[in-house]
Amino acid sequence: MKKTRVLWLSAISCNGNTHSFLNYPYLEQFLSDFEFIYHPVLESDYSLEDITACGIACDILLIEGAISSEFQRADVAITQIIESYAQEVKKIVTVGTCATFGGIFGENDNVTGLHFDKEKRTDTFEHYFDKTISISGCPIHPEVLVNTLYAIKKELLISVDKFLRPKEYFAYTVHNGCTRNEYFEYKIDNHKFGTLEGCMFYEHGCQAPYTQGSCNKILWNEVNSKTRAGLPCMGCTEPTFPKQNLFHTKKNMGIPQNLPVGVAKRTYLTLAGITKAFTIERLEKKLFDD
Amino acid sequence: MIDKKQLKKEQIIQSALELFAAKGFYNTTIPDIALAVKMSVGNMYNYFTSKDVLAKEIIKYISVYLGQKLREINEEDISTKEKTRKIVEIYFKIASLKPEMIDYFLRIYLSNREVFKDGCEGMICVNEFVTEIMIYFEEGVKCGDLREQDFFSAFGLFMGYLGGMVFLKGENILPRELDAYIDDISHNIYKALSV
Fold first, then answer.
1. With a threshold of 0.90, does the pTM exceed it?
2. Chain A partners of B118 at a C-beta cutoff of 8 Å?
3. CATH code of the domain in which A262 resides
4. For B157, which of A17, A32, B33, B68 is 20 to 30 Å away at the CA?
5. Does the complex come out with an ipTM higher than 0.85?
6. The dihedral of CA B135, B140, B144, B149: what is its sign?
7. How far is the alpha carbon of B39 from chain A, nearest alpha carbon, in Å?
């Protein structure tokens, strides 16, 4: 089968997604189906100068990093490079939260994602909105990116949310599949960072119940996730990323300011009042005593 | 048919509340309550299988009643200061019009925890009421009117104060009617809780 030609274009980026992608365990297989006309660290047939000179045939444009009209690659404005390839390609994929929403670099003025400035739609590349897929995350999950690229290659219908993220991976919350769900259900957060016990939503800043993503469904490096390992979810797939005080749950008079997605406050409090009445010895102590 | 049974249940609850207030919880028997609602003792057990079950149903009934009143206040588009006053007002109004309700809450529910230990653990049986107080606090903090603090520190200050005043009134120690204290108490509570 003919290889799909992909351009990986780095905008304002720390290259974290590039590195995350390199952790894809079946990279060899991937590279037998896809060909990078340019990638920042993998070998490719063309140099960045060749790319910016334009006109290289390409099927998918991957953009990593936030976008500003002032930012240049090989002395050419990144916006100009995007514009010249965006017209020709079948699909554009924003790789990571910076390329999607602005992310950490988006904290600066006039630096945004391709179509969004945090939650707000931008209009610079409005005409390419319908051909874009967003893979948010800081960094992206390599399997989510690769599986999406295969779906594009096979011309499958990709159902997306309002931020253009594939529902296949972003219709879930990170809370879904977390091994600490039992502690969440009974409101037990006696967590010590890095330990197996306790839910981190109530005290330790975990954003998993209101963050869309598949971290606990498709594990990282095929073995683990932040929350399973004992670190709170930092909400890195969301337009609101980054926030401050990531290890502390913001509360108003004891009530978490951000509740699980779609749960009304009154309902949450009613349920919380009931579950708090339980005292479950098993969940109060260490899982392994020895 | 269900409505009729529910109505009867509420009549029993109301009569039991009045008897508990007048004679005390332990001095009131199921036959006393049956007599007050003109019902046979046997039929009474069709509604409540024991006095302890009745006791728990009563506290839930009061919680729903108070919770509904507070919810109406919470849903009004008014400042936290105005809400504070309205909560004080409604609490004292209920204490005046239905003294047996607040009396039950203070003298029976809070003082006879052994009756409520199975089935009313934690705040389960007063959930509706506590939820609305939580929402009042949470919204007050979120809009910048109230100071962030532990829930129980704030809850104790608010409800302990109101409960204490109603208790003093019940003991005929207060020289004036509860209404006369609304202004000062609302002011004190808001001042203590605000930023």
1. no
2. none
3. 4.10.480.10
4. B68
5. no
6. negative
7. 34
